[in-house]
Amino acid sequence: MEELDVEPAITNIPAASDGKHLGFAWGPGDILAYETLYMAPGMCAKGSGCSFIHEVRKDEDIYSPILRKLFNESHHIFVGLQTIREDLPSKNKKTQFVSISKNYRSVIRACMEELQQVAASVLVLQVSILLAIELIWNLCEVLFIDAAPAGPLLLHLLDWVRLHKGDVDEKAREVLQSESPAEHHDYWDVVVSYVLQGRFEEARQMLVKQATLQPAARNMYKLMDTLLSKMPFYNPGGTQTLTEFDVKWRHWHEEVDRCLQDNSFASNQHLEIICKILVGDEDTLLEHKELLSTWYHFLVTRLLFCHPTVKPTELHYYAQSCMTMFLDLRSVPEPLDSILLAAFEFDIHQVIKDCSIALNNWWFVAHLTDLLDHCKLLQSHNLHFGSNLREFLLLEYASGLFTHHSLWQLAVDYFDNCPEFGHVYLELQIERVPLDTERKALKVLRICEQRQMSEQVRSICKIMAMRALRNNRLGSALSWSIRAKDAAFATLISERFLQDYCARGTFSDLDLIDNLGPAMLLSDRLTFLVKYREFHKLYEENRFSEAAKLLLSLITAKIAPRSFWMTLLTDALPLLEQKEVSHSAHCALHCGFGHDLCFILQ
Amino acid sequence: MESVNAKYVSQKISKTRWRPVSHSSLQQPDIFATGSWDNEDNKISFWSIGNHGSSGMDEGFEGDPQLLCEHKHDGDVLDLQFLDQDRIVTTSSTGAVTIFRHHQNSQTISVSQRWPRVHRYPCDNAPCTGVVCSSPEIVTVGEDGKIIVFRADQEGVIRVIENADSSTIHAVTYLRTTEILTVNSIGQLKLWDLRQQSNSPSQILSLSGDRLPLHCVDRHPNQQHIVATGGQDGMLCVWDVRQGSTPFSLMEAHSAEMWEVHFHPTNPDHLFTCSEDGSLLHWETSTHSDMPSFLQGGRNNSMISRSAMAPAGGNQSLISTWLSGDSSKGRLETTHMLPSQTLSVNSLDVLGQCLVCGTDGEAIFVNRQVPV
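Structure tokens for the assembled complex are given below, as produced in the milestone run.
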């Protein structure tokens, strides 16, 4: 076994008494813990023991009502993803994959918004986890799925950062709604934030307000406005090549540098800062750590102003150095930071591995890996357990779902899409679904029948039939054995009917026996029962010749149980006295009678 | 097919029903109730789609259903019916029947009356699978094969038909005010006359061939002898209960159990079915003439029915186009109303131009512009 990457978390079981020895048992998704009588030497019995069994669950998320929507909606998207045809040209497939990735992310966002509205303190952690998940997913979409080349890459990264730094807009709104926006204490923060995110239009609009307040410095503001408006942005749909863009950008960069050297903004401290940012001065950028708030924002900003034609393969150099520069030497990088760094290094497996450790639910890694696998980005990396990474994660996720009283139905589709072990897992899990009502049993049966799991079908039908039999619902029991085509059980039920008849002299459940139709052929005993009842009906209707013929066929066919032979023979007696019975039938009955009598007497 | 939006509600929906609108107003329905199943804590909930006034414009799908109020429910909600504007009756997997009252002013729900454990085995509870009501009378059926008659506002039960069926009764509906129809898990349709004191059905109809369980039944709103059923194999059967003991026509509908079948209450040329295979079908009969089918008298020459040609009796009664259901002839159009790949659609209800359905994928779909 490999070394542990992190220290295992400790969970205290509050109800268990102090100092007691705990025993445990593994369950499908949880651990059962209980107090034992064992006393280590040196321990003394402190008070009476606790008589409870404690259930320790690792994954609380599946029990959260809001997160349930995440599981259901993503299941829908997952199933849709599996049906994308293999033979589509790769360009079309890429757009589809990107749109599916966006779908997943919008589902995460919707959940996050709903959680935020609920505003309970316990959910703050969940919200931040979802935020982190969406951040990571978005980055993976930009880097791996969309796989933008140099040029568009920076634009996508800018979008990524803007999406995940929402407080700028809030602050801006506050400033703009105040009486005199240009004099608001957050005004310059907002302007600088806009510049750091490359949102020059908004920055310029804000600056105009300041410009009107300071007519004396009009030329300076005009110069800044010109610089901001002239910064080139790469246009992916345009005719300009990357090299041409690079030349233009360097040109602009030199111009800004010249302004700085000329001290054009020296009299206005704020404009000077903006100018330094535009030129990409690292120290100035680092002075605004609070506004940047994260090292990856710092990274993207730095790239924007120093190296907008960054290539995907160069990202990790910048990422590593930015992270080092931004974070204090003392602070420990959080799991999120190392995951993002691994993403910038294009180490997909490391990303997945780190996420698996950091999160307590397999949802994220399972769906992301599945999507990346469809994009053919995962090397076929055989694990020790025989299946590939995608299948392993999907199996773990689905197994976790199966422990949920309600979400087990979703898990079935996930198992279906695990070609190697999915079927086996499903077979083992589906038998453990509790069957409280017939309706649920029917749904489980339908799942089994659609996948040719005949063992499970038989076993479920037998359980339901036994239950029905115990409650004396013979018709239900029979309908279950018909479904399972279980002749042995049908025989058992028929025996019960016949026993009832012997005990009471009449048949019960006539509506069933009289209306079985072709189902009566399922078992010999059942056929006998139906025919025997038919015999009685014919007798009651005084159709004696037909009754005699039927009885004769019953005797000769030898499908009657031994215990019934005497009954049959005694039934035959009154018929022998009937005049309508035909002569041949008469003789046959006599012979049959005699034959069987000898048989019985033996 | 326009896109129908799903509202995810974090509970598997077992039943959904529109609140009835008064016949005098031409309003579209705006409130529906749902019941959940397979949860540790099941609930009944009331939702609003905010459809006040006529929906003349093209605003079919704006606004998700909004939750008005909800209440805990003991056991799975196996069936749910509106008793009147404010009260619903639910049946539970614990064998209990409950009346809930929805207080519109305060948007709360309270238990108005409860009959616990009415459906049971000698030593266990039996799920109560179906209910139908015509205020104040309520009739329920269950896995224990009993039919029980209640009256709202009266304690205790009015009548119990023990051993009405040796197998599970899956659904019940009114045929006439004093006659009910039940379907069971050995493929039989049984008519019961509640005026009679006997404990046996007045008529038994069944499919020829395999006796597959029937899960749902609905009666034609205008022609009381026409009944539609759906069962385990997903076949839609239309029966004429006045004649014969086998269905009049059989149509292949779904590839798995059909859970509910509904005639449109005011436009019975339209029928809706939903199934375990995740599809919801809208069936529409078309007649050759411009006259709606229920106004045509006598026999339509181009009809080909599978069994007897003329209805019994000399009276040239109206023959519904349902009884000639032969989908290969193009007289019957079916349309899928949901995007594919949903989990089982457990329940649907249609009223006016609005359709609501609930699925095992924990989603509710509302369509406000059903073409009827």
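The radius of gyration of chain B is 20 Å. Residues 79 and 240 of chain B are 26 Å apart (CA to CA). Further analysis is deferred to the final report.
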